[in-house]
Amino acid sequence: MKKIKFPVKGNPFSKLRAGEELLFSGVIYTARDQAHKRLAECLNKGRRLPVDLKGRIIYYCGPTNIAQARSVCPIGSCGPTTSSRMDTFTPILLRSGIKLMIGKGNRSQEVRRAIKKYKGVYFLTYAGCGALLAKKVTSVKPVAYRDLKAEAIYKLEVKDFPLIVAIDSLGNNIYKGAST
Known about the structure:
Elements: E1 2-5, E2 21-30, H1 33-44, E3 57-59, H2 66-69, H3 90-95, E4 100-103, H4 109-117, E5 121-124, H5 130-134, E6 137-144, E7 153-167
Parallel strand pairs: 1-2, 2-3, 3-4, 4-5
Antiparallel strand pairs: 2-7, 5-7, 6-7
């Protein structure tokens, strides 16, 4: 299994292929439905995003009750949410410079085309393992849309966070019958 520590020089993600597994260490940002809606609205209005996400990883996740988890982990359970709920907003975010996404489940044909066009990568992580994934988080900080609580954007530092390449930058997809 490959290990990637972010930030890195160059773009090691463009060399990854669908089906590859890796352990990621570095910064990821959480963002769910409501945060995606606000980010897309900012971009549609020509406004600056509240946090610089160019070249960053967006994790479709809404961490649970962070305050109760502090004695064990810096974050509550943080498993992936269904990615297709963000499909409406994904092409504009990819166009704006976001390259990497983590979630669960297949993506729409429009999103698969946008991933290929903008040379992005879509990763899966293990669903149903939110408590285990929380142990991979070393620090957490809310950075935007705090009023959304669990759906706010959080900056997570992670160590050896498990990922599987679902759609690579060439448009290869691990889901059968899901060509771009």
